[in-house]
Write a structure and sequence with these properties.
Layout (H helix, E strand, L loop, with lengths): L5 E9 L2 E7 L6 E8 H7 L2 H13 L9 E6 L3 E7 L6 H6 L8 H20 L2 E2 L8 E3 L5 E3 L6 E2 L6 E2 L12 H8 L7 E2 L2 H16 L9 H9 L1 H4 L12 H10 L12 H5 L9 H6 L2
Antiparallel strand pairs: 1-2, 2-3, 3-5, 4-5, 6-9, 7-8, 10-11
Helix pairs in contact: 4-6, 6-9
C-alpha cells in the first residue's frame, strides 16, 4: 500500500507530480517513488504515457542499465511507480559541480558509452525514449549509468518507427524529426525511430565537452528554430580552456544531422565503431559490472 511507504525527501517535482525518496514498510533500503496525479493525467489525456512508462519498465526487468520497477501502486488520487534508487545523482548535477560545467573527454566517453548501451537495450525491447537529457542519466552507487524517466517513451511498430504527433521531449535535446512530426499532426509521414535518441546523445556529448547544449536559444521558438536549422547553428567554440578532439567533433557532427544520414540509423554498431570510442571494449561493458 502507498500509505506504508515512509517519505524521506522530495527528489524532484514537476507538473505531473513528484519523485520522492522513500523507505518500504519493513526495509531500510531507499526507493525512488514517482507519484503521478490521476486528475492531471486525465486532464491532459496522458493516461497512455503512464501505461507506456510502466510497460517499458516491466519489459526491462533485469536490465541493469535501467532502474528496476519494484511495484506499481495506486490510491484514490495518485499512481505510484516504486523504483530502484540511484544515490549518485544524475549527469546534470555532475556537470553543475565541475569547473566550466564540463568533464574530460575520457569521462564523457565513459558516460556516453554506457548511455548508448542503455538506449540500445531499451530499443531492443521495442521502445524509444524520446527525452534523453542530463537529468535522466542517473548515476548508481557503483558509478555506472542508469537511464531514467520513461514518461515520454513510445512503443515502436513492426517497422521500427513511431507514428506520433504528440509534443514530447525537452527543447534543448529534442531532434528535428520529432519537432517535424509535431508540426505535421495528423499527417501520414509523421514517423521516426530510435535515431531520435541518438540525436540527444549528440547534444549530451556536446554539452559534456563545451558546457552548454548546442542549440539553446533565448526563447522556446528560438531554440526550435536552431534545432530545425542545425546545419547553420552547430558551431564549435574556439576556447583555449576547452580542448576537444577531432574525433569527438566528428561524432557530434554525425549525430547532430538529418536523420537520413545520422550515424546509428543502420544500427548501434555504427556508433560503437566510431574512432571516438576507440579503446572501448563494448563486449566487456555489456557483460561486466
Amino acid at each position: 500500500s502507498p500509505r506504508q511507504l515512509r517519505e524521506i525527501c522530495v527528489l524532484a517535482m514537476g507538473e505531473f507530480g513528484k519523485i520522492k525518496l522513500m523507505y518500504g514498510p519493513e526495509s531500510d533500503r531507499p526507493l525512488a517513488v514517482k507519484t503521478l496525479s490521476k486528475q492531471y493525467l486525465l486532464r491532459r489525456g496522458d493516461q497512455a504515457c503512464y501505461m507506456e512508462e510502466r510497460d517499458a519498465l516491466v519489459a526491462n526487468r533485469g536490465n541493469r542499465w535501467i532502474p528496476q520497477l519494484e511495484q506499481a501502486l495506486q490510491d484514490e488520487e495518485f499512481l505510484h511507480l516504486v523504483m530502484e534508487y540511484a544515490p549518485g545523482g544524475d549527469l546534470l548535477g555532475l556537470l553543475a559541480r565541475q569547473e566550466h560545467a564540463v568533464i574530460s573527454e575520457a569521462d564523457a566517453r565513459f558516460y556516453m558509452a554506457e548511455l548508448i548501451m542503455a538506449l540500445h537495450t531499451l530499443h531492443q525491447t521495442g521502445f524509444v525514449h524520446r527525452d534523453v537529457k542530463p537529468g535522466n542519466v542517473l548515476i548508481a552507487a557503483d558509478g555506472h549509468v542508469k537511464l531514467a524517466d520513461f514518461g515520454s517513451c513510445a512503443r515502436m511498430g513492426p517497422s521500427g518507427l513511431v507514428l506520433s504527433s504528440v509534443s514530447v521531449g525537452t527543447p534543448d535535446y529534442v531532434s528535428p524529426e520529432v519537432l517535424r512530426a509535431q508540426e505535421n499532426a495528423g499527417g501520414t509521414s509523421a514517423t521516426y525511430g530510435c535515431e531520435c535518441d541518438w540525436w540527444s546523445v549528440g547534444v549530451l556529448l556536446y554539452e559534456c565537452l563545451y558546457g552548454d547544449p548546442p542549440f539553446a536559444g533565448d526563447t522556446l521558438l528560438d531554440t526550435y528554430n536552431r534545432v530545425m536549422h542545425h546545419q547553420r547553428y552547430l558551431v564549435f567554440p574556439d576556447d583555449e580552456d576547452v580542448e576537444v578532439s577531432d574525433a569527438a567533433k566528428d561524432l557530434i557532427r554525425r549525430l547532430l544531422c538529418d536523420r537520413e544520414t545520422r550515424i546509428g540509423l543502420s544500427g548501434v554498431e555504427e556508433i560503437q565503431q566510431h574512432p571516438f570510442f576507440a579503446g572501448v571494449n563494448w563486449e566487456q561493458l555489456h557483460t561486466s559490472r
